Amino acid sequence: MIGRLSGTLVEKFPPEILIECAGVGYEVTMPMTSIYALPELHEQVIIYTHFVVREDAQLLYGFANTTERKLFRLLIKVNGVGPKLALAVLSAMSADQFVSYVAHDDVSGIVKIPGVGKKTAERLLIEMRDRLKDWQVTSLTPATDAMPVQLTTENTFVNDPFRNNKGDAINALISLGYKQVQADKAVKAVYNEGMSSEDIIRLSLKSML
Question: Distance between CA atoms of 162 and 160, rounded to whole angstroms?
Protein backbone atom coordinates (compact mmCIF):
# COMPACT_ATOMS: atom_id res chain seq x y z
CA MET A 1 0.00 0.00 0.00
CA ILE A 2 1.33 3.44 -0.94
CA GLY A 3 0.26 5.79 1.84
CA ARG A 4 2.31 8.92 1.20
CA LEU A 5 4.49 10.45 -1.48
CA SER A 6 7.22 13.03 -0.95
CA GLY A 7 8.92 14.49 -3.99
CA THR A 8 8.94 17.15 -6.70
CA LEU A 9 5.76 18.36 -8.34
CA VAL A 10 6.45 17.97 -12.07
CA GLU A 11 3.08 18.42 -13.80
CA LYS A 12 -0.45 19.57 -13.04
CA PHE A 13 -3.26 18.57 -15.39
CA PRO A 14 -6.28 18.59 -13.04
CA PRO A 15 -7.56 16.34 -11.75
CA GLU A 16 -4.18 14.63 -12.26
CA ILE A 17 -0.65 15.53 -11.24
CA LEU A 18 2.77 13.96 -11.74
CA ILE A 19 5.10 13.80 -8.75
CA GLU A 20 8.68 12.58 -9.03
CA CYS A 21 10.00 10.62 -6.05
CA ALA A 22 13.57 9.33 -6.14
CA GLY A 23 13.60 9.25 -9.93
CA VAL A 24 10.16 7.60 -10.28
CA GLY A 25 7.21 9.59 -11.61
CA TYR A 26 3.83 8.81 -10.01
CA GLU A 27 0.60 9.79 -11.74
CA VAL A 28 -1.88 10.78 -9.05
CA THR A 29 -5.53 11.81 -9.31
CA MET A 30 -6.58 14.45 -6.78
CA PRO A 31 -9.72 16.39 -5.84
CA MET A 32 -9.57 20.07 -6.71
CA THR A 33 -9.63 21.06 -3.03
CA SER A 34 -6.26 19.30 -2.70
CA ILE A 35 -4.86 20.64 -5.96
CA TYR A 36 -5.54 24.22 -4.79
CA ALA A 37 -3.21 23.54 -1.84
CA LEU A 38 -0.28 22.40 -3.99
CA PRO A 39 2.83 24.54 -4.41
CA GLU A 40 4.11 25.72 -7.79
CA LEU A 41 5.69 23.33 -10.27
CA HIS A 42 9.17 21.97 -9.48
CA GLU A 43 8.75 22.57 -5.76
CA GLN A 44 8.77 19.88 -3.06
CA VAL A 45 5.44 18.44 -2.02
CA ILE A 46 4.03 15.82 0.35
CA ILE A 47 0.68 14.19 -0.44
CA TYR A 48 -1.28 11.42 1.26
CA THR A 49 -2.49 8.64 -0.99
CA HIS A 50 -5.04 5.88 -1.41
CA PHE A 51 -4.15 3.01 -3.75
CA VAL A 52 -6.89 1.25 -5.72
CA VAL A 53 -6.29 -1.98 -7.63
CA ARG A 54 -8.80 -3.05 -10.28
CA GLU A 55 -8.74 -5.77 -12.89
CA ASP A 56 -7.98 -3.25 -15.63
CA ALA A 57 -6.00 -0.60 -13.77
CA GLN A 58 -4.01 0.43 -10.71
CA LEU A 59 -5.01 3.92 -9.58
CA LEU A 60 -3.42 6.26 -7.07
CA TYR A 61 -5.52 8.99 -5.46
CA GLY A 62 -3.85 11.84 -3.60
CA PHE A 63 -4.87 14.33 -0.92
CA ALA A 64 -3.34 17.42 0.61
CA ASN A 65 -4.05 16.17 4.12
CA THR A 66 -5.20 13.10 6.03
CA THR A 67 -8.63 14.61 6.73
CA GLU A 68 -9.58 14.63 3.04
CA ARG A 69 -8.21 11.12 2.60
CA LYS A 70 -10.23 9.89 5.58
CA LEU A 71 -13.45 11.31 4.12
CA PHE A 72 -12.64 9.83 0.71
CA ARG A 73 -12.24 6.39 2.29
CA LEU A 74 -15.55 6.74 4.10
CA LEU A 75 -17.32 7.86 0.93
CA ILE A 76 -16.21 4.91 -1.19
CA LYS A 77 -17.69 2.54 1.40
CA VAL A 78 -21.15 3.89 0.61
CA ASN A 79 -23.19 1.64 -1.67
CA GLY A 80 -23.01 2.97 -5.23
CA VAL A 81 -20.21 5.45 -4.56
CA GLY A 82 -16.89 4.76 -6.26
CA PRO A 83 -13.62 6.70 -6.31
CA LYS A 84 -14.73 8.92 -9.22
CA LEU A 85 -17.85 10.11 -7.41
CA ALA A 86 -15.96 10.54 -4.13
CA LEU A 87 -13.44 12.65 -6.03
CA ALA A 88 -16.26 14.79 -7.42
CA VAL A 89 -17.61 15.35 -3.89
CA LEU A 90 -14.25 16.51 -2.58
CA SER A 91 -13.68 18.70 -5.64
CA ALA A 92 -17.00 20.47 -5.19
CA MET A 93 -16.60 21.20 -1.48
CA SER A 94 -14.27 20.91 1.48
CA ALA A 95 -14.51 18.03 3.95
CA ASP A 96 -16.01 20.44 6.52
CA GLN A 97 -18.71 21.57 4.08
CA PHE A 98 -19.72 17.99 3.27
CA VAL A 99 -19.87 17.06 6.95
CA SER A 100 -22.07 20.12 7.53
CA TYR A 101 -24.46 19.04 4.76
CA VAL A 102 -24.74 15.59 6.33
CA ALA A 103 -25.25 17.00 9.83
CA HIS A 104 -28.12 19.19 8.58
CA ASP A 105 -29.63 16.59 6.22
CA ASP A 106 -29.18 19.05 3.36
CA VAL A 107 -30.10 17.09 0.21
CA SER A 108 -30.19 20.26 -1.91
CA GLY A 109 -26.49 20.88 -1.38
CA ILE A 110 -25.48 17.31 -2.22
CA VAL A 111 -27.48 16.97 -5.46
CA LYS A 112 -25.51 19.82 -7.04
CA ILE A 113 -22.48 17.53 -7.23
CA PRO A 114 -22.11 15.99 -10.73
CA GLY A 115 -23.28 12.37 -10.81
CA VAL A 116 -25.33 12.70 -7.62
CA GLY A 117 -29.09 12.45 -8.05
CA LYS A 118 -31.67 12.75 -5.30
CA LYS A 119 -31.61 9.01 -4.46
CA THR A 120 -27.82 8.93 -4.24
CA ALA A 121 -27.82 12.10 -2.14
CA GLU A 122 -30.34 10.60 0.28
CA ARG A 123 -28.30 7.40 0.52
CA LEU A 124 -25.17 9.44 1.21
CA LEU A 125 -26.90 11.32 4.01
CA ILE A 126 -28.27 8.14 5.60
CA GLU A 127 -25.09 6.06 5.38
CA MET A 128 -22.67 8.86 6.24
CA ARG A 129 -24.65 10.13 9.22
CA ASP A 130 -23.47 7.36 11.56
CA ARG A 131 -19.97 7.31 10.13
CA LEU A 132 -19.54 11.03 10.72
CA LYS A 133 -21.30 11.35 14.09
CA ASP A 134 -17.97 11.46 15.93
CA TRP A 135 -16.17 13.34 13.17
CA GLN A 136 -13.68 15.89 14.40
CA VAL A 137 -11.61 17.88 11.97
CA THR A 138 -8.01 17.56 13.03
CA SER A 139 -5.35 20.10 12.18
CA LEU A 140 -4.76 19.76 8.46
CA THR A 141 -1.34 18.75 7.22
CA PRO A 142 -0.62 20.96 4.22
CA ALA A 143 0.84 19.66 0.98
CA THR A 144 3.91 21.80 1.60
CA ASP A 145 5.58 23.23 4.67
CA ALA A 146 5.71 26.62 3.01
CA MET A 147 3.11 29.33 3.46
CA PRO A 148 -0.20 28.65 1.69
CA VAL A 149 0.12 29.31 -2.04
CA GLN A 150 -2.04 32.11 -3.41
CA LEU A 151 -3.76 31.26 -6.68
CA THR A 152 -2.21 33.50 -9.33
CA THR A 153 -1.42 33.32 -13.00
CA GLU A 154 2.07 32.16 -12.02
CA ASN A 155 0.75 29.01 -10.34
CA THR A 156 -0.31 27.27 -13.54
CA PHE A 157 0.11 23.93 -15.25
CA VAL A 158 2.89 22.72 -17.52
CA ASN A 159 4.33 25.45 -19.74
CA ASP A 160 2.95 24.19 -23.05
CA PRO A 161 2.30 26.75 -25.84
CA PHE A 162 -0.36 24.49 -27.34
CA ARG A 163 -2.47 24.49 -24.18
CA ASN A 164 -4.66 27.25 -22.81
CA ASN A 165 -6.02 27.79 -19.33
CA LYS A 166 -9.64 28.05 -20.44
CA GLY A 167 -9.51 24.72 -22.28
CA ASP A 168 -7.69 23.04 -19.39
CA ALA A 169 -10.41 24.21 -16.99
CA ILE A 170 -13.20 22.85 -19.20
CA ASN A 171 -11.42 19.49 -19.55
CA ALA A 172 -10.90 19.29 -15.79
CA LEU A 173 -14.60 19.90 -15.10
CA ILE A 174 -15.59 17.23 -17.61
CA SER A 175 -13.17 14.80 -15.92
CA LEU A 176 -14.94 15.51 -12.64
CA GLY A 177 -18.28 14.47 -14.09
CA TYR A 178 -19.79 17.68 -15.43
CA LYS A 179 -21.34 17.63 -18.89
CA GLN A 180 -19.69 19.53 -21.74
CA VAL A 181 -22.49 22.10 -21.84
CA GLN A 182 -22.29 22.68 -18.07
CA ALA A 183 -18.50 23.05 -18.16
CA ASP A 184 -18.55 25.45 -21.12
CA LYS A 185 -21.26 27.60 -19.55
CA ALA A 186 -19.61 27.75 -16.11
CA VAL A 187 -16.17 28.61 -17.48
CA LYS A 188 -17.56 31.26 -19.82
CA ALA A 189 -19.40 32.89 -16.91
CA VAL A 190 -16.30 33.34 -14.72
CA TYR A 191 -13.46 33.64 -17.23
CA ASN A 192 -11.35 36.77 -17.47
CA GLU A 193 -8.18 37.22 -19.48
CA GLY A 194 -5.07 36.32 -17.51
CA MET A 195 -6.76 33.96 -15.04
CA SER A 196 -4.91 30.77 -14.13
CA SER A 197 -6.51 27.41 -14.85
CA GLU A 198 -6.90 26.74 -11.12
CA ASP A 199 -8.71 30.04 -10.57
CA ILE A 200 -11.08 29.29 -13.44
CA ILE A 201 -11.86 25.80 -12.10
CA ARG A 202 -12.31 27.03 -8.52
CA LEU A 203 -14.73 29.82 -9.51
CA SER A 204 -16.58 27.57 -11.97
CA LEU A 205 -17.17 24.93 -9.31
CA LYS A 206 -18.31 27.59 -6.86
CA SER A 207 -20.78 28.99 -9.41
CA MET A 208 -22.41 25.57 -9.86
CA LEU A 209 -23.05 24.95 -6.16
Answer: 5
Four-point Cα dihedral 116, 122, 125, 131, nearest 10: -90
pTM for the whole thing?
Answer: 0.75
Instruction: Name the burial class of residue 63, with classes exposed (0-12), middle (13-18) and buried (19+) by CB atoms within 10 angstroms of its CB.
Output: buried
Per-residue pLDDT of the chain (209 residues; tens, 9 = 90+): 789 999 999 999 889 999 999 999 999 999 999 999 999 999 999 999 999 988 888 999 999 999 999 999 999 999 888 999 999 999 988 888 899 899 889 998 898 888 888 998 999 999 998 888 878 644 444 444 333 333 333 344 444 443 588 888 888 888 888 888 888 888 989 888 888 888 888 888 888 76
Q: Which domains does the chain have, with CATH numbers?
A: 4-63 (2.40.50.140), 67-131 (1.10.150.20), 165-207 (1.10.8.10)
Q: At 113, give phi and psi (nearest 5°).
A: -75, 135
